[in-house]
Amino acid sequence: MGWLPVALLAVPLVGALALLVSPYALRPALRTYGLILSGITLALAVLLVATFDYGQAARQQFEVDLPWIPGLGLRFHLGVDGISLPLVALTALLTFLCFVYLCWGGARASFMRARPRALVFTLLVLEIGMIGTFLALDLLLFFVFFEIVLIPMYFLIGIWGGEGRRAASIKFILYTLLGSVVMLLGLLLVWAQTGTLDIEALSASHGAGMSRSVQILAFVAIGIGLAVKTPMWPLHTWLPDAHTEAPTVGSVLLAGVLLKMGTYGFARIAIPILPEGAAVVAPWLGAFAVVGIVYGALACLAQRDLKRLIAFSSVGHMGFVLLGFATLTPVGINGALFANIAHGLITGLLFFLAGAIKDRYHTADIPALGGGMLATLPRLGSVLTFASIASLGLPGLAGFWGEMLALLGAFQPANGLPRGLFLTYMVIGGLGAVLTAAYFLVMLSRVTHGRPRHATPAQADGGEIEGGPVAEITALDDRLIHEPPDERPVEPLTSSPARAATATLETPDSHAPPGIPESADIRGHELLAWTPLVVLILLFGLWPGLLLSLTTPAVQILLGAVS
Hints:
By secondary structure, this protein is an all-alpha fold.
């Protein structure tokens, strides 16, 4: 079955190349082209999950080891173990769901207008880089895949993003490229000291051939590159702008997968290959992690924009992941790996929901939404509530286990680490968890609860009326104004500011704001895209052993380097 990892990369690669070779022949099928290719990739990922030997989760399976650049001793080495398997499946799933989102509903029209061939090509190349990062077992091959994702994400934000897309995309590429250069220096230092780039061999040697000072230097260099992508405070400042301006599919993949590439690098490379460096840097890593947890939560409390709030929440959640790694214990690292997957599912769903809300209201400004979503769009409001309480860590949902295990790992860190310091980190992290619950509950109280206060055409261009929703009514559904459903005459809207401030469209038995029909609740394509995420959030929340039994054997081998 060694062909499976190659096929996972080959399907999106061949699809992307076909768009370059035969652009006009594929144009009529562009709407479903990416959906079919990502669906095939997802089917291959499901086959990978189904045929994986769970009794041998600690070792690499489905290995492919071929000469790549013989003169330099570089090899095309791929494989999957208990750490990388869930991330490969998560990547394939989220990419497929993004294409589902693009192929139907309101997103379809904008998709077909805005360079559809380029968008499909960009998402397929992005999928190659994301999956390849989790499959690579050669340091330089890992770096190549790690870098491949930067260019398509840059264009995804810069071309299909919001009004501030240019500045956000430039900030994204500058931060991540700078971090990658520093990481490359660390990887080359490891190569120079050991004479190999094979990740399996380096992990098995547990740092042999490298002095303590070299390991510390290499860990810091590699860690900085990974921390930028994670992102770790204070290297996080590119993230809120990138998330806010990215299109919905860009935000989903950025939060759901790209951030995991940084944390995965700690588990696959930094900790097992550089154990002495990890032991020295761990207290500092924990300090930055807990500062990020609290900072992210406080920043969320100050946000008015829904997408920006979700973006800052990622800083806090990734802080818990880094704290788990910093403990260097099986409990903490298992918690970090679990939180990785949980965050990908929950935050991916949250960004889908933020895109749907912005599509209805033409704004993501929380005060402008006006509250009352459970009354106006009850299904959409209910799923938003579910995703929010999952993200704040309610027991029984996936968001709880990773953060709880990370804090438990800090209670009893690895031998040699200062326990008193990590107990302090645990307390600060617990405070951050309380603040996380606070900002999500505040957001829900402002968006989903209360009586809806309706926007009017006078505020359609982004103004505010006492906290009421801002909605471009004529843009949302011009028919509701000019062609009432029952054909009864409607009193025309006047240009008088007083009249405009009080005008509403009266539709019998409707509680929706004017211009937002009841049919604007969850649509079929959204239900199809969101249901797998909801099911998995519930499944891993109620049965965490599904993931923990997969990662635990691999973590025990990984920690052989630092025990």
